[in-house]
Amino acid sequence: MKKKTNVIILAGFLGSGKTTLLKQLLKYEKAHNHKTGVLMNELGTVSIDSDAVPGDVPLKELLNGCICCSLSDQLEKQLWSLCKENELDTLIIEATGAAHPIDVLDACLSPYLLEDLHVSGIISIMDATRWLDRDKMNVQAKMLMLEQIKHADFIIWNKTGSLSVEQKSVLESDAKRLNDGTPYVLTDYSIVELSQLFSLSVKERSEHQPVTAEKLKVKTWMYTFQGPVKKDVFENWLREAPSSIYRIKGYIKYEDQQIYLFQYSYGLPSYEKEIMKMPLRLVFIGENLDVETLTKGLQDVERMSK
Ligand SMILES: Nc1nc2c(ncn2[C@@H]2O[C@H](COP(=O)(O)OP(=O)(O)OP(=O)(O)O)[C@@H](O)[C@H]2O)c(=O)[nH]1
């Protein structure tokens, strides 16, 4: 009988650390000579995260929508073709940060895929600080994070390095209260003992709350800088940016003429030097994005950088 492909679903709110974990899983699987494929879903029209996937890894991307709502029919098809085109040992699905993990799981359990796939489980990577501050978010976003915890087969509380002992114990009790018996870890940069993520068992699912990107009203928007901007001017703008921007990612060039992969999530900007000449596009993901004000602010950044 044909060996089934082991599927790992990475869930978790926007910017929580899913791609950070994906990169580690790919290295681990390569070191173990396991052929691994990736299905990546992004809300925007441009893929930024796919750069994290090495060229020799079979990759399918579903862009400009969420696999748990507008792209749900395509998810099954893409899973099917990834399996048929490649003899995969492992398939990692990185959902958008606005996806309900159960809808992704449902697609994997489709009768068309039953002979091909074995779902190892849902790993929910949670931005610990965002979770502790969740009352600042709207009801739908809060509910989505709650669902991501409740339906996980493994919970990773990420970005915990600067938290107090009391805050860490709140996270521990929240994991037990919301999803008793499910393993969890507290970590930074999604660092976990990876072997344990391949042998999870998918538990019986209770009813789930249908929270989707559409209900969340998460929208994406893109801005292209015409050239380099001054780092302090851009960061000043960023500090004042509305909290309804959940995520920014893309490429930016500063006055040192260096292009950086720029990421921003819950108040934290990060940069990685980029050696390729990438287009200077930033993708914004958030709710009620006021495109006019954002455009004006970013044009001002360009003007003040001259
Ligand atoms: N300070 C800090 N930053 C982290 C940590 N883990 C990840 N990051 C950074 O947070 C940003 C978002 O991480 P990603 O792994 O891209 O998050 P994601 O969940 O894939 O994001 P989306 O796909 O947009 O939902 C990146 O700049 C990471 O380097 C952490 O523990 N601490």
TrEMBL record:
Catalytic reactions on record: GTP + H2O = GDP + phosphate + H(+)
Database matches in CDD domains: CobW-like
GO cellular component entries: cytoplasm
A GO molecular-function descriptor: nucleotide binding
UniProt superkingdom: Bacteria
Pfam family, one: cobW
Domain CobW C-terminal: 218-302
Coiled coil: none
Keywords assigned by UniProt, alphabetized: Chaperone, Hydrolase, Nucleotide-binding
Alphabetized SMART domains for the sequence: CobW_C
Family: Belongs to the SIMIBI class G3E GTPase family. ZNG1 subfamily.
The protein's name in its UniProt record: CobW C-terminal domain-containing protein
Organism, scientific name: Fictibacillus phosphorivorans
